[in-house]
């Protein structure tokens, strides 16, 4: 099931034209990477305005009932395990058990993708070195240069394919998790007991379904860069040491300081997300109560008082969101500046140490540091931010799923031939035009 979720079955179109074009049940990875299954839809859209019947139906594996019941099964197992060992159940463990297989496969894609980015500077350095030491009589060196050029081209091609393939399928994983959790929240809301209803509000449930679950779409895309970013830093540091020696440590020290700072930002994101979610719950609950009792508000002319109340709540919520935006802006600013600072510090240190450097080494050093630009200064901070927010959302959803439910009454039906209802001195009446209610029963 893990591999099938990475390479899903073909979407089934609603219209007859698309059904004939999409009649196979499984799709190969090469076709998926080209997104060729959209071509019939583009063709119809070019000929006429798209209608609802032209849209693809939802894949069976993507339906909310299937996804929700699958995750619910792992959650029920986790709750049972926690009761056995007298521990608190963990929704995180249930999610990991449900989706670890497909995430593992996509993690391999991430490793290969970022590996090609690290190898590219090596091929480029070899090509520049060949030009530096050009010898027309050395045919062996020319053949090696052709090999390096082919290797560089292959790395670029592999990266282009794996990069988009990874993000596409990780977005599908995030979508599946969001749909599954929405299904669980909805089913849970229908089973809440009277005492549990007093511990939650409609506003909180709406906030869980509209806000908290959206974190899963975002965290899925950058999840693997939590480990890929530091691993790539180690690999690049080793290659830089081989090229220019200890001068590289000055530039890498700048990056390590940034990574530590971004880890601190992650804790701040988690704290701000908790406070923002609580304020959002309060605001939505207040708005729901105002809308429910709008007649009373109008009759007593309380509009101004409630406007002031809701405005204060919204301002508190916006203040937390602004703080998160400031931190997010600082993370994004590092993406545009850190690689230039690292290159500057590295070459200044190399010059102060009186080390000789060649053109090929300059190209290799610059490209290796630029290879870290996306994974370590953009995707890693985004991963820290989104994981911190997702942890808060998972904790809020878990607390909701642990609320008391209405006791399930198992009605034991009598076996065939046994009496279900025994009535004595019973009188009944009904309308003449209706069927007799007991015409098929013995009384």
Compile the SSE list and pairings:
Elements: H1 2-6, E1 12-13, H2 16-21, H3 29-34, H4 39-47, E2 56-57, H5 64-84, H6 91-132, H7 139-190, H8 194-197, H9 202-212, H10 214-222, H11 225-244, H12 248-292, H13 294-299, H14 303-352, H15 359-401
Antiparallel strand pairs: 1-2
Helix pairs in contact: 5-6, 5-7, 6-7, 6-11, 6-15, 7-10, 9-12, 10-15, 11-15, 12-14, 12-15, 14-15
Keywords, separated by commas or semicolons:
15 helices; ABC transporter transmembrane region fold; 443 residues; elongated; ABCC4_TMD1; two-stranded antiparallel sheet; disordered N terminus; ATP-binding; 2 strands; mainly alpha; 2 domains
Query: What's the shape?
Result: elongated
CATH topology tier name of the largest domain: ABC transporter transmembrane region fold
Helix/strand structural class:
mainly alpha
* CATH class membership of the largest domain: Mainly Alpha
Number of helices: 15
Q: How is the main sheet built?
A: 2 strands, antiparallel
Fraction of residues in helix: over 70%
Radius of gyration based on Cα positions:
31 Å
The number of domains is 2
Architecture per CATH nomenclature, i.e. the level-2 architecture of the largest domain: Up-down Bundle
Multimeric state:
single chain
Percent of sequence in beta strands: under 5%
Distance between the termini: 54 Å
Strand order of the largest sheet: 1-2
Low-confidence stretches: 1-30
CATH superfamily of the largest domain: ABC transporter type 1, transmembrane domain
Write the element-wise H/E pattern from the N-terminal end onward.
HEHHHEHHHHHHHHHHH
What's the pLDDT, averaged over the residues? 83
Number of extended strands: 2
């Amino acid at each position: 099931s893990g591999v099938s979720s990475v390479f899903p079955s073909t979407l089934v179109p609603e219209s007859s034209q698309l059904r004939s074009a999409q009649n196979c049940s499984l799709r190969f990875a090469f076709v998926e990477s080209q997104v060729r299954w959209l071509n019939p839809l583009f063709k119809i859209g070019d000929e006429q305005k798209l209608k609802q019947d032209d849209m693809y139906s939802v894949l069976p594996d993507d339906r909310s009932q299937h996804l929700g019941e699958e995750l619910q099964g792992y959650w029920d197992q986790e709750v049972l395990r926690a009761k056995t060992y007298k521990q608190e159940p963990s929704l995180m463990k249930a999610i990991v058990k449900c989706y670890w297989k497909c995430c593992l496969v996509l993690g391999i894609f991430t490793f290969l993708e970022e590996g090609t980015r690290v190898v590219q500077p090596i091929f480029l350095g070899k090509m520049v070195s060949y030009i530096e030491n050009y010898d027309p009589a050395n045919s062996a060196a020319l053949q090696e240069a052709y090999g390096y050029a082919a290797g560089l081209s292959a790395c670029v091609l592999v990266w282009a394919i794996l990069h988009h393939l990874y993000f596409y399928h990780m977005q599908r994983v995030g979508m599946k998790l969001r749909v599954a959790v929405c299904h669980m929240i909805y089913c849970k809301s229908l089973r809440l007991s009277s005492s549990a209803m007093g511990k939650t509000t409609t506003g909180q449930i709406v906030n869980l379904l509209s806000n908290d679950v959206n974190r899963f779409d975002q965290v899925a895309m950058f999840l693997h860069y939590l480990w890929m970013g530091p691993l790539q830093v180690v690999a690049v540091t080793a290659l830089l040491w081989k090229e220019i020696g200890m001068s590289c440590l000055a530039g890498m020290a700048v990056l390590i300081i940034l990574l530590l700072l971004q880890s601190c930002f992650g804790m701040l994101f988690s704290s701000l997300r908790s406070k923002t979610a609580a304020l959002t719950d309060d605001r939505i609950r207040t708005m729901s109560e105002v809308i429910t009792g709008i007649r009373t508000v109008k009759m007593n002319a309380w509009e101004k008082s409630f406007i002031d109340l809701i405005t204060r709540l919204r301002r508190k919520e916006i203040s937390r969101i602004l703080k998160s935006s400031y931190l997010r802006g600082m993370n994004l600013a590092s993406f545009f500046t850190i690689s230039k600072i690292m290159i500057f510090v590295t070459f200044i240190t190399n010059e102060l140490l009186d080390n000789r450097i060649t053109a090929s080494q300059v190209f290799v050093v610059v490209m290796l540091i630029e290879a870290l630009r996306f994974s370590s200064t953009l995707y890693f901070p985004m991963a820290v931010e989104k994981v911190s927010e997702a942890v808060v959302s998972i904790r809020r959803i878990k607390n909701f799923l642990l609320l008391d439910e209405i006791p399930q009454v198992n009605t034991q039906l009598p076996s065939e031939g046994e009496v279900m209802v025994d009535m004595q001195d019973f009188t009944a009446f009904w309308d003449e035009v209706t069927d007799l209610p007991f015409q098929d029963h013995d009384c």
